[in-house]
Write a sequence for this structure.
């Protein structure tokens, strides 16, 4: 196991899963990522990340009901586990801590 | 379920995905891809969506999605192997005829394959013994004069480039220079021993990894008049290899043996007996102003050791700059320099001035192509016969499947069988290989120097791998087609399956084999005809009963006197070179009508006996007038083309006689005009304008006209005389006609190889056909019997059975003959001057023979079936 540290993209995906609540499956995650971050998210990349997050026990998944739209194939829905939540909170704390130390931060002179 | 009107993703991509993907990930992935596909269909259209789907499927092929191979499956296959082998053995033994046909056919073609592999292994091991072989490059050069560039590179480059390269070009670590001209007679204790070798620069042993046994590699070739001997040469000279510090004489100069080295290995592209220090030339050739000229690119081979991690392309740009600055030292000349990797020398493109014999990529490619065709043909036989035997095997496959065999196990079974057959064929072909090897090597004298074809563990391993590959290749198609048969179909369609399955494939393969056979035999016959034509070509002078003796530096007078004593010797003449066998030498001639126009004409220097002895036809004027040795040259004989080229007297021979022309800076009067003759080679257009100059006692050859009943005895007499006068050099003499034949040795070799290979191809095609005929006729034996009972005649049965095969042969002939004709008539022969046009016999004789052979087989087999007693056949039921 690579440890519990989150990569930047992993964190984004994890957050997106959390934000999507009950509707978090691969294609929806991709779309949401594109919408919020503005950069294109490739399905293959997202899949790989989801697979890795599951290996790290940060998400769990279950298959949904079969629908007509996906050629009869079921969706795999993801949910953030407690480990995942912990990791998210910790990385937020690290950031907040660092932010709080910066006295003032303006886009001066750029 | 999908809606019907909606386009679907490509089926094969879907299948591929479900084949490689882990089952637990599969459904989700498929769903995602489907969803994207639907979206893309709407936004970008069906075609683009399909393309993206395929791309995505390929992109998802990642470590975490791939199904892990099941260990259990592997184990089962492993345990089943013994069963496969047992069944295969039974099958091979049961069908003796088919096994024999397969083993023989594969074996015959594989023996050629083995030869090919042995040759490739040899060729690719050339120069590998040098430690830095991947960093050594040969400096090659191409001359461009007055904007007219040579088409090919020379393997040589100028001595100037070799010596100053290191200072002007970045990335060059070391340079080894070899220069010809060292080969000569060495003298030791009054004994004369000829040795061959090169002048070599002092870094020779830094660049190359030859084994220096005695002496310091850094200094052995440093000082003038130092030489390094190979063990062989040292033994020849001193009777011992411990010769360090001894001296020997060459051309009245004393040389010191500064080093002893091991003989160069057989897989070195240049071979030598002695190396002399290049610095000697600074003293010997002190007065030679041409030595260091930039465009004197003919006598020096330069090998460059590049720094590690520098690309030859980078060096090439430096080289271009270097040659651009050097070009200024000579007029109107550009020398293009290039680097040739050491490994490319043996098999690379053909170049002028090679340092030793090379194989050349063309020969290798042709041989490779022929071998592959041959192997394919043999594999087709196997495929053909196996597919044809489908009837008996279908039942077997059906039962196996019913019991529970997987597809992979059926494939395993059939592949095992074909691999076993090809391994048996390997044993057979190995015997053939040992048998063929000496014949192959003796086909061309240079092959013996180039290749060893020696057996080694690596080679044997290659052979076995090769056999396995062939086995898999031959067995794959039948194995897959058998594995597809489902158990139910196997039992239900028992009776018609052999005719329905793969019939078109079999036909195509048979046609292919016979087309190849006909093409091979026809091509061989055509080349044979050309070869015969060229060696009997009318060169424009007589070569009958003329023995050419290489003088090897001896004076002519003594030898001529001795030879004239023999009653068999009719006449003797002297010449510098021999016409008609590919010797060339050029000289500048000035146009008498226009002093500014000068051109290279080809020449030969001869004595007054030469022209009558060779029966040259005089159009006007006459022979040279005999003169004393060393008298001033005044006369020249020219051929018609010279008159035409310079427009001398409007090309009129009679009035040209007496005119004075300037050749090689000398004013010479034309004494005779001779008819055009072949100066170079009959199949070469170079050397049309020829002048003959008069010179005595400077010849390289004696042309001896012999009148004798017993030529070998006369030859022995001449040899005895030679031995008496020159005990050192062996007697080098050959009859003119033999030399002309040797000039076309390449053609002769291709006739031999072509003949042998086409024989094999025909052989394989024939036994393949035999197998097919035997099988199909036996299948129809019941039908034939019933027809016979009903009153059919033998003749009509014969046509019934052989009709199909004859049709195939006809198609093969229709494909093969015109394509061969077009290839030779439009592509090959136009490139070959003076060739004979294609004629009826060589175009059709070969195919006729092949077809006759095939017909014989078909008829004999079908006749056997047609003659069987119907009662016996029908009784069996």
């Amino acid at each position: 196991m690579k440890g519990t540290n989150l990569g930047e993209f992993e964190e984004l995906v994890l957050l997106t899963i959390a934000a999507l609540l009950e509707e978090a499956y691969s294609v929806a995650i991709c779309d949401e990522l594109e919408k919020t971050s503005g950069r294109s998210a490739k399905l293959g990349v997202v899949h790989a990340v989801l697979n890795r997050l599951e290996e790290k026990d940060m998400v769990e998944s279950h298959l949904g009901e079969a629908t007509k739209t996906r050629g009869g194939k079921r969706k795999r829905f993801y949910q953030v586990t407690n480990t995942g939540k912990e990791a998210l909170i910790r990385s937020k704390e690290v950031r907040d801590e660092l932010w709080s130390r910066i006295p003032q931060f303006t886009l001066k002179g750029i | 379920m999908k809606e019907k009107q909606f386009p679907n993703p490509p089926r094969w991509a879907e299948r591929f995905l479900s084949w490689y993907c882990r089952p637990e990930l599969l459904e989700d992935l498929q769903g995602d891809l489907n969803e994207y596909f639907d979206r893309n269909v709407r936004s970008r259209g069906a075609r683009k969506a399909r393309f993206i789907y395929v791309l995505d499927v390929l992109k998802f092929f990642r470590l975490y999605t791939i199904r892990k191979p099941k260990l259990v499956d592997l184990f089962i296959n492993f345990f089943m192997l013994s069963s496969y082998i047992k069944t295969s053995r039974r099958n091979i033994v049961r069908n003796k005829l088919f096994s024999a046909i397969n083993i023989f056919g594969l074996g015959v073609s594989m023996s050629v394959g083995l030869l090919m592999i042995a040759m490739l292994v040899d060729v690719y091991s050339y120069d590998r013994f040098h430690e830095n072989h991947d960093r050594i490059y040969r400096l090659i050069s191409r001359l461009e004069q007055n904007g007219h560039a040579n088409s090919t590179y020379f393997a040589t480059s100028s001595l100037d480039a070799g010596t100053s390269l290191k200072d002007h070009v970045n990335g060059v670590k070391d340079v080894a220079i070899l220069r010809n001209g060292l080969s000569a007679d060495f003298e030791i204790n009054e004994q004369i021993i000829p040795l061959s070798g090169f002048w070599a620069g002092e870094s020779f042993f830094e660049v190359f990894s030859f084994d220096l046994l005695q002496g310091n590699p850094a200094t052995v070739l440093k000082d003038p008049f130092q030489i390094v001997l190979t063990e062989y040469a040292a033994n020849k000279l001193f009777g011992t290899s411990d010769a360090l510090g001894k001296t020997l004489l060459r051309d009245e100069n004393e040389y010191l043996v500064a080093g002893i080295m091991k003989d160069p290995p057989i897989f070195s592209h240049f071979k030598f007996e002695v190396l002399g220090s290049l610095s000697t030339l600074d003293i010997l050739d002190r007065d030679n102003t041409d030595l260091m000229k930039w465009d004197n690119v003919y006598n020096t081979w330069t090998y460059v050791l590049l720094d590690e991690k520098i690309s030859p392309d980078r060096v090439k740009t430096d080289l271009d700059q270097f040659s651009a600055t050097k070009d200024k030292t000579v007029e109107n000349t550009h020398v293009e320099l290039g680097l040739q990797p050491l490994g490319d020398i043996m098999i690379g493109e053909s170049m002028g001035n090679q340092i030793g014999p090379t194989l050349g990529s063309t020969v290798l490619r042709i041989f490779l192509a022929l071998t592959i065709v041959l192997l394919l043909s043999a594999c087709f036989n196997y495929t053909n016969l196996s597919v044809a035997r489908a009837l008996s095997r279908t039942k077997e496959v059906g039962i196996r499947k019913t019991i529970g065999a997987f597809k992979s196990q059926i494939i395993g079974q059939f592949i095992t069988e074909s691999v076993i057959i090809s391994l048996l064929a390997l044993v057979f072909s190995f015997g053939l290989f040992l048998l063929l090897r000496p014949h192959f090597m003796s086909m061309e004298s240079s092959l013996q120097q180039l290749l060893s074809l020696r057996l080694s563990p690596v080679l044997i391993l290659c052979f076995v791998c090769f056999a396995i590959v062939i086995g898999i290749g031959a067995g794959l198609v039948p194995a897959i087609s058998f594995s597809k048969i489902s158990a139910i179909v196997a039992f239900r369609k028992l009776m018609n399956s052999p005719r329905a399955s793969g019939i078109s494939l079999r036909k195509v393969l048979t046609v292919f084999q016979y087309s190849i056979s006909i093409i091979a035999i026809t091509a061989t016959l055509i080349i044979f005809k050309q070869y015969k034509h060229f060696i009997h070509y009318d060169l424009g002078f007589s070569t009958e009963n003329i023995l050419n003796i290489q003088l090897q530096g001896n004076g002519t007078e003594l030898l001529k006197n001795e030879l004239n004593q023999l009653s068999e010797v009719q006449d003797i003449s002297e010449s510098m070179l021999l016409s008609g066998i590919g010797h060339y030498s050029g000289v500048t001639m000035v146009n008498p009508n226009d002093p500014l126009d000068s051109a290279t004409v080809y020449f030969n220097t001869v004595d007054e006996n030469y022209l009558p002895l060779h029966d040259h036809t005089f159009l006007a004027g006459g022979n040279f007038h005999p003169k004393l040795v060393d008298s001033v040259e005044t006369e020249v004989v020219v051929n018609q083309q010279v008159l035409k080229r310079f427009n001398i007297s409007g090309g009129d021979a009679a009035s040209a006689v007496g005119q004075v022309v300037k050749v090689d800076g000398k004013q010479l009067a034309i004494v005779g005009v001779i008819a055009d003759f072949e100066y170079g080679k009959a199949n070469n257009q170079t050397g049309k304008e020829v002048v003959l100059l008069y010179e005595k006692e400077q010849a390289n050859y004696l042309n001896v006209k012999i009148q004798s009943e017993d030529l070998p005895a006369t030859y022995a007499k001449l040899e005895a005389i030679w031995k008496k006068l020159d005990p050192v050099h062996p007697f080098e003499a050959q009859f003119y006609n033999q030399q002309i034949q040797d000039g076309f040795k390449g053609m002769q070799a291709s006739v031999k190889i072509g003949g042998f290979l086409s024989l094999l191809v025909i052989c394989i095609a024939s036994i393949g056909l035999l197998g097919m005929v035997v099988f199909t006729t036996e299948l129809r034996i019941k039908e034939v019997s019933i027809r016979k009972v009903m009153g059919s005649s033998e003749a009509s049965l014969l046509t019934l059975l052989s009709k199909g095969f004859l049709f195939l042969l006809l198609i093969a002939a229709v494909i093969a003959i015109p394509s061969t004709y077009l290839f030779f008539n439009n592509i090959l022969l136009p490139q070959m001057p003076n060739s004979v046009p294609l004629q009826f016999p060589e175009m059709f004789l070969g195919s006729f023979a092949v077809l006759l052979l095939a017909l014989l087989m078909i008829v004999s087999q079908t006749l056997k079936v047609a003659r069987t007693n119907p009662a016996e056949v029908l009784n069996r039921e």
Summary: Chain A has a mean pLDDT of 84. Chain A touches chain B at residues 25-27, 43-44, 47-48, 51, 63, 68-76 (CB under 8 Å). Residues 82-101 of chain A form the longest helix (20 residues).
